[in-house]
Amino acid sequence: MITLTSTAANMLQKVMTEKGLDDHALRVFVSGGGCSGLSYGMTFAEGPELGDQVFETDNVKVVVDPGSIQYLDGARIDYIDNLMGGGFRIENPNAVRSCACGSSFQTSAGEQGTPCS
């Protein structure tokens, strides 16, 4: 299961309304690469595809493909807004190491890349 904080859900609703994507879902996925071996990605999708897991928080649907859910199960998405800038942040209990950039991670299965420079 993937959850959104209320702050993240509110920001997503705002962005989706501004872009005319009120009927879309947030697609969260994992791909190979990044400083720590795996990278997070997010985009908007018209809906789930065959085999996707679907979660909903505060009227925001989140879809995750079958290959990514194994890395994201239990993750929480938050939105941080501070003096250093704002953005979405994924808190992932499956990550044993994360890069300083916050967009890549390594799991206990050992997927890893080269360190950040």
Describe this structure in words.
The chain is α+β, with helices and mostly antiparallel strands and 117 residues long. The chain has a single domain (3-107), classed as Hypothetical Protein Aq_1857, Chain: A (Sandwich). It is 17% helix and 43% strand. The chain has helices at residues 6-18, 66-72; strands spanning 3-4, 25-32, 38-45, 53-57, 60-64, 76-82, 85-91, 95-98, 104-107. The strands form 2 sheets. The protein has a 6-stranded mixed β-sheet with strand order 4-5-2-3-9-8. Strands 1-6-7 form a 3-stranded mixed β-sheet. A hairpin with a 5-residue loop joins strand 2 (25-32) and strand 3 (38-45). It is globular and about 40 Å long. The relative contact order is 0.25.
Shape: globular
- For the CA atoms, what is the radius of gyration? 14 Å
| Biggest sheet record | 6 strands, mixed
CATH homologous superfamily grouping? HesB-like domain
**CATH fold naming:** Hypothetical Protein Aq_1857, Chain: A
**Domain tally:** 1
How do the SSEs run, as a string of H and E? EHEEEEHEEEE
Helix content: 10-25%
Oligomer: single chain
> Which architecture would the CATH scheme give at its second level?
Sandwich
- Output the CATH class name: Mainly Beta
% residues in beta strands: 35-45%
Number of helices: 2
Let me know the average pLDDT. 82
Topology:
Elements: E1 3-4, H1 6-18, E2 25-32, E3 38-45, E4 53-57, E5 60-64, H2 66-72, E6 76-82, E7 85-91, E8 95-98, E9 104-107
